[in-house]
Amino acid sequence: MSINIVKDSADARLDLVFVPGLKVDQGNWTSAENSIFWPEKLLPAQIPKARILAFEYDDDPTIDAFWNKRDFISRNSDDLVNSLLDERRAEKAERPVIFVAHCLGGLVVENALMRASKNEKKRQLVTCAAGLLLLGTPHYQPGTLSEAKKYFQLAQEDVPSDSELQSLSKHVLAIPQAFAEFIQANPINVESFYEGSPVAINNQEIEIVEESVAKFPGDSPDPTMLKGNHHQMSRFESEKDKDFKNVSRVLVDWVGDLPEPEEKGTTNNISNASFAGSTNYGYQLGQNTGNQTGFTFGGR
């Protein structure tokens, strides 16, 4: 596993980390028509003071990395955390960090944050986490687990029976509910998007992650639809792309809500930051109050 520096800046005040999911065709985050790698070509103009990082797996994750009786998701999650800790040393360790994850990579990030919170030496990464933007990340529950068969179709794998799928889905099922509970004590901005167009698979038109699957368990905000299909929703051709505008707007808003870095010699404790003025309905450090099931929403 590795972290690649896509773009750095001498005055960078936060880290933006891109985490891909299941790879079944072309390069991650790269458009089909003109091969635009948008974290490098489009996003810096929107967020000039961000260091942009891209996480890469040693081997492209397959279906077996997620649907397996063994917990391979946690292996990838731990590698993500450890790679980030290596990259965020000294003063960089205190920077806010925002994650952008596509597909099953969202489960890797959610699991990574939960696991890091249990380790004293890794907990600072969770404290600095200011946002998680999810593009087509499934949050299966027992009633929607049959939807996971679409991933096997997407990967051109044999589709398991209901009983086989249940036995392989222990970890995929556990993460969404656990993360919904985790977020109550570790409030982070979360914004979820789902695809608005189907993928053509063996003469079928299939939406891999529909709205009901992209939604978190409990009383959570509804996810937002993008017009692209499961692949296209993470790949943009230009800054004029409507989907890019919808995604980048969320990131720009989050960055705008971050507190200004403190002068050298002082301690910038992100855990006490207030994200006032936000217009999104995600989670914000220091602003969440009230009783609810699954998520905690801040009063406005």
From TrEMBL:
Residues covered by the Fungal death-pathway protein SesB domain: 267-294
Gene Ontology CC annotations of this record: endoplasmic reticulum; membrane; mitochondrion
Compartment(s) of residence: Endoplasmic reticulum; Membrane; Mitochondrion
Organism domain of life: Eukaryota
Keywords noted in UniProt: Endoplasmic reticulum, Membrane, Mitochondrion
Chief place of localization: endoplasmic reticulum
Keyword Zinc-finger annotated: no
Regions that span the bilayer: none
The protein's name: Fungal death-pathway protein SesB domain-containing protein
Organism: Talaromyces rugulosus
